[in-house]
Design a protein that fits this description.
mainly beta; 195 residues; 3 helices
Length: 195
């Protein structure tokens, strides 16, 4: 006759004494949290770096789909103004691209909490958004980003973008991507001159 084995119930592994004694993080006081919110919401040096780009600009765009192509150029007007109390620089662009009317709206800001630039762009050549995030160490003359969007087939496109500030009247926006052979190339540059 087979005997039934009694199921052995194992106790869950107990915490070590050290883990049990670990102090819990202290709850932050409401006053301290309000100070953090105040610092997070107040425009900072990161926002001040964007000031030379506020105003109305003539824009010249040079664009290529792949290396070796003949560049296409187009002109436009771009109006940049601070919104939401100086927290974001809004860009409203109107012009042409590839022989067609083109318009776009973008926002660039500085996230005080994550200590990096953030941006979004939408235009008449898409129904999606391009999102960008600052990388590296920004300076008054150069801010670098990585950006993502999707092409019409649904494939994710990745870009490296650079804002360069020459002076109060001139700045540029470069967009770099990879060719099929894996080498980086500049697919676009927009050169802004104060109107």
């Amino acid at each position: 006759m087979a005997t039934k084995k009694k199921a052995v119930r194992r106790k869950p592994a107990s915490r070590t004494k050290k883990a049990r004694r670990a102090p819990r993080p202290k709850a932050i006081s409401q006053e301290a949290m309000m100070e953090k919110w105040q610092a997070a919401m107040t425009p900072s040096d990161g926002h001040r770096r964007l000031e030379p780009m506020a105003g109305t600009f003539r824009a010249k765009t040079t664009f290529v789909m792949s290396p070796g192509e003949t560049p296409q150029t187009s002109d436009g007007t771009s109006v940049h103004r601070f919104v939401v109390g100086g927290r974001y620089l809004e860009q409203v662009y109107k012009g042409t691209s590839m022989g067609m009317p083109f318009e776009g709206i973008g926002y660039t800001g500085y996230d005080n909490v994550r200590k990096r630039y953030v941006g979004t762009w939408m235009d008449s050549f898409s129904t999606g958004l391009l999102h960008s995030f600052g990388v590296g160490r920004p300076t008054a003359n150069k801010m670098s980003f990585v950006a993502e969007a999707f092409d019409p087939s649904g494939k994710k496109m990745a870009f490296e973008t650079i804002l360069r500030v020459a002076d109060n009247d001139h700045h540029s926006y470069e967009m770099w991507t990879k060719a099929p052979n894996g080498k980086k190339f500049r697919t676009m540059i927009v050169e802004y001159t104060r109107a």
